[in-house]
Amino acid sequence: MNNKGRLAEMKAANYLREKGYCLIEHSYKSRFGEIDLIFEYKNFIVFVEVKARGENSIAEPREFVDEIKQKKIISTANLYMMQYKVKLQPRFDVIEVFLENNRIKSIKHLENAFSL
């Protein structure tokens, strides 16, 4: 992962913590893929994909979480939930981080960006 990606994940984690989310895991990896951030929030376990894009990007960051990426995240989340016997309702969110001159311009949180 590049510096922009690390910065975006760090800012996204801080953003969600400020909203009352409790960070459980960062960069969880399995044979299926990786989940950037895993939080507990109310009665949910929230699997978060963080996407950062610069001002010259031709697409919204969420557009890079395509069906293939979603399937990998869901498979990884299912494994995580079985491995740790999670009883909470799963939710899949996307955090869009918009960059300008290599700095964070804004953050957008998309709850329930996709589902099982």
TrEMBL record:
Transmembrane segments: none annotated. This is UPF0102 protein SAMN02745114_01579. InterPro entries: Restrct_endonuc-II-like (IPR011335), tRNA_endonuc-like_dom_sf (IPR011856), UPF0102_YraN-like (IPR003509). Belongs to the UPF0102 family. Keywords: Endonuclease, Hydrolase, Nuclease. Coiled coil: none annotated. The keyword Hydrolase applies. HAMAP family: UPF0102. Gene3D superfamilies: 3.40.1350.10. Pfam families: UPF0102. One of its GO terms (molecular function) is nucleic acid binding.
